[in-house]
Amino acid sequence: MPRNLNAERDNPCLKEQELSFKCLNKNNFDHEKCEVYFANYNNCKEFWNKVKSERRAKGQAPYLPPLEEREAIKAEYMKGKPQQS
C-alpha cells in the first residue's frame, strides 16, 4: 500500500514507478538492468501527460481523469494503436 493515500489518484503511473524502484533495489541500483522498467514508466508518463494536455485543451476538468475512468481511456487508446508483431 502506498504511503500517500492519494498517491494512486495523483499518479496514474504509480505501479510503473514502484516496479522501477523494486527493480533498482533488487539489482543493487544497476540502472542498466532496469531499463525496460524505466522505458515503461516513461511511456506511461508520456501517455497520461498527453491525456491531460488534450483534456485541458478541451476545457475538460479534471485534467487527470479519475481512477474509475482510466482503464476505459487506456482501452480506447489501445484499440486505435497498430498491433505489434
From TrEMBL:
<protein>
    <recommendedName>
        <fullName>Coiled-coil-helix-coiled-coil-helix domain-containing protein 7</fullName>
    </recommendedName>
</protein>
<comment type="similarity">
    <text>Belongs to the CHCHD7 family.</text>
</comment>
<dbReference type="InterPro" id="IPR051040">
    <property type="entry name" value="COX23"/>
</dbReference>
<dbReference type="InterPro" id="IPR009069">
    <property type="entry name" value="Cys_alpha_HP_mot_SF"/>
</dbReference>
<dbReference type="GO" id="GO:0033108">
    <property type="term" value="P:mitochondrial respiratory chain complex assembly"/>
</dbReference>
<keyword id="KW-1015">Disulfide bond</keyword>
<dbReference type="GO" id="GO:0005758">
    <property type="term" value="C:mitochondrial intermembrane space"/>
</dbReference>
<dbReference type="Pfam" id="PF02297">
    <property type="entry name" value="COX6B"/>
</dbReference>
<keyword id="KW-0496">Mitochondrion</keyword>
<dbReference type="InterPro" id="IPR048280">
    <property type="entry name" value="COX6B-like"/>
</dbReference>
